[in-house]
Structure formats: C-alpha cells, structure tokens
Amino acid sequence: MQNNTNVSAEEISRFEKLAARWWDPDGESRPLHDLNPVRAAYVAGRANLRGAKVADVGCGGGLLSEALARAGANVTAIDLGEKLIQIAKLHLFESNVQVDYRVQSSTELAEAEPASFDVVCCMELIEHVPDPAELVRDLSAMLKPGGQLFLSTLNRTPAAFGAAIVGAEYLMRLLPRGTHHYAQFLKPSEVATMLRRFDLELEDIKGLAYNPLTRNASLSSSTAVNYVLAARKTA
Ligand SMILES: C[S@@+](CC[C@H](N)C(=O)[O-])C[C@H]1O[C@@H](n2cnc3c(N)ncnc32)[C@H](O)[C@@H]1O
C-alpha cells in the first residue's frame, strides 16, 4: 500500500474485530443490515446500475457491494481492513455474485483509476477518517464527468449523539463503545461545502430513519441523525 495516510489504524482495528460476525444480521452490524435495503434502493432509484462501473469505498464486509452487484453493477469495493476484505470475499461463495474486493485506500483507487467510475458509494465512512475533505477529493477524482456520488453519514446534532452513541453504544449495546466520535459527525452543510470544493453538485439529500427496537428503516425528511445524499460530478 503506497498512499493511505487518511486513515486511523485504531478505526480499522476496531472494525476488523467485527469481521467474523459482519454478515450476522443480529451481530454488531445489525444497524447496517437493517439500513442496507433502504440505501441500496435509494442508489438504484437514482442511478442506472445495470452494467455501470461502481466503486464502494470503505465497503466493510460488503453488504452494499453485494446489493449493488445484484442490481447489475460491476462493483469494485475497497476497505483498509484486511480481515473485512477476507470476509467479504468469502461471502461471495454464498451469494453467487461478483465483486472485485481490494485492500486499498481511496487515494490509491483514485490514483489507479481516475475519472473511471459511473457511480461511487461511500456509506458510513466519512465520519471515521482523519480528513473528510481529502476523502471527498478522492471520491470526486474517481468519478467520470457526470458520474454520481452517494454518501451517507451521521449529523452532528444532539439527536445523533443520543441515537448513535448513547442509544446504540451504551443503552442498547448494539455497537461496541467508541465506534463513533461525536466531533467527527458532519453537518450536511459541511459536506455540501466539501462537495462544491471538489466539483460535485448536491442533487438530493434524505434522512435515514431507523428504529433499533422494531428494526424498521426508511427514508425520511429529517436529516437530524443519519442521512444519505446524492451528488453529481460536474467537471
Ligand atoms: C461503519 S463501517 C461501514 C461499512 C460499509 N460502508 C457499510 O456501510 O456497510 C466503516 C468501514 O470503513 C472502513 N474504514 C475506516 N477508515 C477507512 C479508511 N481510511 N479507508 C478505507 N476504509 C476505512 C472500516 O474498516 C469499516 O469497514
């Protein structure tokens, strides 16, 4: 690996500890399992995935990567967690879809394949990197002109603090404590500024509503906790 400075080793090791149970819908990745159909449908509803060249950046064990591949996309999926990529590759034997999984950083993929993806997805990663703007720069660099970016993250609001940290990590113990750092949550306006800086035009933003008790997930008009956005590469 040549270029992976925008990474926290602590973050990667925390997620790698979850690798073995990543595909267990009742394990620590349960919120991602529950949210995945909603965000996959959001992407499929706004992008023509059949035959599209798609990157899934920070793919973890591959929940979204597989959904995108099932929708007909040619998916390249990267993560710096080697154990996660191993699990993701193993899961392909069960699911019978094809995904090109790589242990690679966003900067390395952007340098290796600049301006070559129709669609780039980056779900629940930006709040885990030291420099979010640098990540957005890489995501933009991967996209063809006119290509689409889909990104989800947590808003920096008391509601998100309550749901993602107090609720999920401390009360319900869905996630290991320390999974999230409130200071790294991003307001939509902050992400929008980064998008503009790197030639991406914000086209849509929706809240992702999730009730951990009922496990019900849906799109919502409130971006107060979790949100997903769509942007287009302009140049
Ligand atoms: C919350 S998980 C989200 C996984 C997947 N995107 C999803 O939503 O199902 C965050 C993932 O980002 C990965 N990650 C953290 N920092 C990273 C970095 N700098 N580059 C690539 N992946 C990173 C972790 O290993 C982990 O798999």
Question: Overview of this structure, please?
Answer:
It holds the Pfam family Methyltransf_23. By secondary structure, the protein is of the alpha/beta class. It has a single domain, classed as Rossmann fold, CATH 3.40.50.150. It contains 8 helices and 8 strands; from the N terminus they run H-H-E-H-E-H-E-H-E-H-E-H-H-E-E-E. An 8-stranded mixed β-sheet has the order 3-2-1-4-5-8-6-7. Helix 5 runs parallel beside helix 6 and helix 6 (132-142) packs across helix 8. The longest helix has 17 residues, at 30-46. Residues 6-7, 11-12, 15, 32, 58-60, 63-64, 79-81, 84, 105-106, 123-125, 128-129 line the site of S-adenosylmethionine (SAM).
**Briefly, what CATH class?**
Alpha Beta
Assign the structural class, choosing from mainly alpha, mainly beta, alpha/beta, alpha+beta, or little secondary structure.
alpha/beta
| Rg value | 16 Å
Query: What sequence of helices (H) and strands (E) makes up the elements?
Result: HHEHEHEHEHEHHEEE
Write out the strand line-up for the largest beta sheet, numbering strands in chain order: 3-2-1-4-5-8-6-7
Mean pLDDT: 94
Question: What labels would you give this structure?
Answer:
single chain, 235 residues, alpha/beta, Rossmann fold, eight-stranded mixed beta sheet, 38% helix, binds S-adenosylmethionine
Short note summarizing the structure:
It contains 8 helices and 8 strands. The chain has helices at 9-16, 30-46, 63-70, 82-95, 106-112, 132-142, 158-171, 188-197; strands spanning 53-57, 74-79, 99-103, 117-123, 143-154, 200-211, 216-220, 226-233.
